[in-house]
Amino acid sequence: MSDQFYRTKDGDTVDYIAWKQYGNQNPGTVETLFLANPDLSQYDDTLPAGLVVRLPDIPVAEETQTVKLWD
What we know:
The chain is an alpha+beta fold. The chain is built from two helices and two strands, in the order E-H-H-E.
């Protein structure tokens, strides 16, 4: 699957983009967005409207199985 792109809107943050596009705000997801878009680090928490953010493919972690010791 190839990378996709997101155009920022007023009030967007990198955390919000991670949550909206990937369904989580894990530090690894946010870090991957910054690595794919190094220019984002020049902005404060809130990004200006109109930036084009590259959304790289991020592997989804496999769901772990929980083991109950007692019922």
